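agent: user wants the full assembly modeled, not chains individually. Plan: 1) parse entity lines 2) check alphabet per entity 3) run joint structure prediction 4) return tokens. Steps 1-2 passed, two entities, 814 residues total. Proceeding.
--- entities ---
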Amino acid sequence: MTVSPLARPFPDIAAISGVRIGTATAGYKAWTRNDVTLFAFDPGTSVAGVLTRSRCPSPEVELCRTRLANGTARAVVINAGNSNAFTGLTGRQAAAAQTAHAAALLGCDVGAVFAASTGVIGVPLPQDKAVAGVEAAFAALGSASWHDAANAIGTTDTFAKGAIVTAMIGATRVTLAGVIKGSGMIAPDMATMLGFIVTDAKVAPTFLQAALSAANARSFSCITVDGDTSTSDTVLAFATGAAGNAELTDARSAGADAFAAALADVCGQLARLVVRDGEGASKFIAIAVDGAEDDRAARVIALSIANSPLVKTAIAGGDANWGRVVMAVGKAGEAADRDRLAIRFGNTEVAANGMVVPGYDEAPVAAHLAGQDIEIGVDIGLGQGRARVWTCDLTHGYISINADYRS
Amino acid sequence: MTVSPLARPFPDIAAISGVRIGTATAGYKAWTRNDVTLFAFDPGTSVAGVLTRSRCPSPEVELCRTRLANGTARAVVINAGNSNAFTGLTGRQAAAAQTAHAAALLGCDVGAVFAASTGVIGVPLPQDKAVAGVEAAFAALGSASWHDAANAIGTTDTFAKGAIVTAMIGATRVTLAGVIKGSGMIAPDMATMLGFIVTDAKVAPTFLQAALSAANARSFSCITVDGDTSTSDTVLAFATGAAGNAELTDARSAGADAFAAALADVCGQLARLVVRDGEGASKFIAIAVDGAEDDRAARVIALSIANSPLVKTAIAGGDANWGRVVMAVGKAGEAADRDRLAIRFGNTEVAANGMVVPGYDEAPVAAHLAGQDIEIGVDIGLGQGRARVWTCDLTHGYISINADYRS
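--- prediction returned ---
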């Protein structure tokens, strides 16, 4: 697999207090790579999560949804190569057995063990391999790095994706680190991916959930590769509390703003890394919509542009075809007035007041589109609504990857 | 341009009483082909139409919307190579001038002259060429065949598309013929295309509109190539009345059922021809959804499948990846119960009750997917709602055509 031309190096992530990582080979496919990952947390770790809105979710998603209500976590196990989705009772039993085995090994309640699986849909997770795999990962706890985990949770990913930030809560420095996988079947609500964020901050589950949900709305729910949404989308955040700060219980706690901003930063970084590994991507596209009726309308319009195959292929071809942006604004169904619309590529305004700008010079636009980082700006001209979303271009690479993935 | 492997031969369409056709070269692009088409109707012709729901429509669409209220038509002029969309006042003036010139030549009110343009967005229709072009087409009235018209209205189309049916209204045989263009930027409400249907039946405008709207709901609004919707979608139906039947004034008129069924037949044939010319298409895909909560939900689910890049690339690769169908059902947002879902490819059931069928044999499915005409059937298992939609696969050809179209 060729590494995406938009790849970013994996950051330097040191150990986070309160979590140990182990990886192992369960052998879900005919390969020798690590494909099962276990994060084990110290007692007292709180948890929050955002999960796919698919009406046909995997058993792992259902299991997470149920167990999130407890608010505490001791482990999460991640399987790569088999999504276990649409596998009926057999698949449900495998997920239950794997998490029960992890709980037995860790000596904790099974309700504190989370799970996520990614890969082909429709093949039940083989229970024997899943149980043996998590046992091997348990035996390896403490030996795997964050980089190892990022590699072990990937499937069609072409590079390991991680992010790390720090924040000050009072006089205590806390760290937030995360890894994520995803490159296709990526669309909002939320993006199709598995993401895991761990902080050593002490955060009550309810506030962790509120901060994660808010961060999600401006990160994972604002990216799209192909408009498709998986049955397995999962982002979980864990707070071990090992840093020793005074617990953040709600938005009024001292340092809560700093923590929420740091969490949003990590989520935004991880989300954009997923776009940078979009299947076949050759260009990263940031879409800014301003002047819509309200923020919701701006997001609908921005996603209409971001999901348009015609816009995405035009960018792939380096073609300043702003007419296709007009088309995408028009089809979004939100309030728009053709004669107030303005469009820019990079810093160059190409259209305003319902037509091409007088004396339009395509040269600076062509130069911008020849680069790897593309900006499309649209001003609807009606109100104050704004949105920012991120996508990639649509290339022959996407077709090659997806027309022959399962075989 | 390579002809689509899914092409169908142009049918034998004889002259329809009450309409004359002329084609000419306006020279909207650097080519020598015919690119302006004029249909001239005898006095007493009624008209109905369905138009794009884009919030940024072309001036031709606005002009049609206004003039449809009159209910009568004497002509429609169609320009190919320039959509005149998003061209401000200059574009509006060009459309007004071209139709006014046609009205002067025909000696009729300008409100009875319709227009449609297709091609690049954002370049004003050159008024001098548009006026000279329609004058040349007027001079050629009566010399062009339906096949000539189908060729002259095309842009990226790879084959001429037409359909003809007849119906009995009492003892009078009436004929309905149509031509259509469209191959990309094709998505419902309604499909991105220009379509023109003429019948010699005598039909009151209100009933013609009702019958066309009903036919549209099950034809042009049920096809998708890429989920994109143009600024110029237009389907117009004209009834010259030359056949001499007793006028159809409403659904209770004798023969109204037969006429409506024939109109729906023509619309369905034309709509499916557009899919058969889908950009880069190598396979025609019919999607049948049954058992949804209601027909509306069934259509949303069917279009979610039809618009999924992952489903479309799987079909392109001949891959029986029914997990992607599950994904598309799940993301549609309509009521679905994973454990009641059943999926078939062709006549072979592959999944039922939330998992693969026992003893599933991929051989007959692989054989079906190796063909050109693919059927995907989904039973939601909840209610009586049903829908049928049509699409094509997503191939390297789509990328090649669209990554370098405008240049």
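agent: reporting back. The domain at 284-402 of chain A is CATH 3.10.20.340 (Ubiquitin-like (UB roll)). Chain A touches chain B through 73 residues (CB under 8 Å).
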